[in-house]
Amino acid sequence: MASPLIRLSHITLQVSSAQKTIADLVTKYRFRPFAARGLDGTSSCQVALRHGGVTLMVNENRQLVRSSLLYDWPVPLPSMDTACNVSYEVEDLPGLCRRLANEGCRLLVPPTELRDDAGPVSYCVVKSIAGNVNHTLIDRSRYGAPFLPGFQLLHSDDVSAGDVTSVDHVTYACPRGATPGVMDWYRRCFGFQHFPLSSGEDPARGFEISGPQIGLRLTSIACPGHDDVPKIVMAEALPQNGTNQIDQFLRHHREGGIQHAGLSTPDIFKAASSLAQCGVVFAGQPPSYYTDPQKQAEILRAGLEPQHLSQLGILLDSSTGSVEEDGRILLQVFTEPLFSKDSFYLELIERRGAQGFGEGNIRALWRSMQDMMEDQSQKQQEGATSH
């Protein structure tokens, strides 16, 4: 079926301290608040921030009253800051809501209309089958202002300004065995289809990577013909010895949730350098990654220098396409988690013709995040001991 989704609107962060989260997003990640409500304390604090073409909404979950939130519904994780809502713009909201109800979906907020001088906006909130994830579905086709009714614009905003252009993908951490049900739900409700990460991939098995310190199954889905709707990637840990980042995430999100979002950038070196100068910490790679002769040759064939990549821990993969034949490469790097070590984080991704993710990058990114989380755990233990 054709997807009813038009484009991504925003991703919501539910936090215990809006002031701290907004300060980090502004000073470190270069987001800029452009619309807000509740700053006077009369309602729940909700602040929309933008960096380039990416919009995040920060909802403060301290004593949230469900009816006081606009365009959202709080998730029951009072002690855990989290990303919890992926909001989409849609058409024919009433028809879509009827179809979702017929599919047995839980509508947390039924179709609701809000308006101001710029016109009406209608929305609903549906509970996803995936963990603590909700989706706000918004019809703003008759609305003439930059954001949404109920929000005060803080300043005029230049969408083109910034180092990131869009959300490339959103990754869910899923309990083992949950992926087929999640895929089916998104297919039936929103028209997502399997997007293979490797040639000949079986949708029922996904893309499995196993080896020392890694056991991972990834499955990706996309909305055909809707480039403004990010891919969804589902990540499951394979049975293995020891805990890993998926299992650690599931300790606080028992049914799963949003682990990270990949932000597209036309120049990952410029974007990563800019964020690093502002204090963002990236997951680094061991020096052996950049001194390996095979990897060095791959980087050089792409017209880049290994030393340039190593300065910020940027990874390069050409396994999604032959760099010798057509020059398609993928460049990626993960940031530190925004909240605790087991929480949501961001990724910078630059696609030079590559559409998949690349096994080499997946392995290296997994290990870099494992190392970062283990390092954070050790620092927390040392801090607790010193007190």
TrEMBL record:
Q: Which InterPro entries match?
A: 4OHPhenylPyrv_dOase, 4OHPhenylPyrv_dOase_C, 4OHPhenylPyrv_dOase_N, Glyas_Bleomycin-R_OHBP_Dase, Glyas_Fos-R_dOase_dom, VOC_core
What residues does the VOC domain cover?
Answer: 7-140, 166-336
- UniProt-listed PROSITE patterns: VOC
Catalytically driven reaction(s): 3-(4-hydroxyphenyl)pyruvate + O2 = homogentisate + CO2
The record lists the lineage as: Eukaryota, Metazoa, Chordata, Craniata, Vertebrata
* This protein's UniProt keywords: Iron, Metal-binding, Repeat
Keyword set includes Glycoprotein: no
Q: Does the keyword Repeat apply?
A: yes
> What family is reported?
Belongs to the 4HPPD family.
Name of the protein described by the UniProt record: 4-hydroxyphenylpyruvate dioxygenase
Q: Which cofactor does it need?
A: Fe cation
According to its UniProt entry, what is the function of this protein?
Answer: Catalyzes the conversion of 4-hydroxyphenylpyruvic acid to homogentisic acid, one of the steps in tyrosine catabolism.
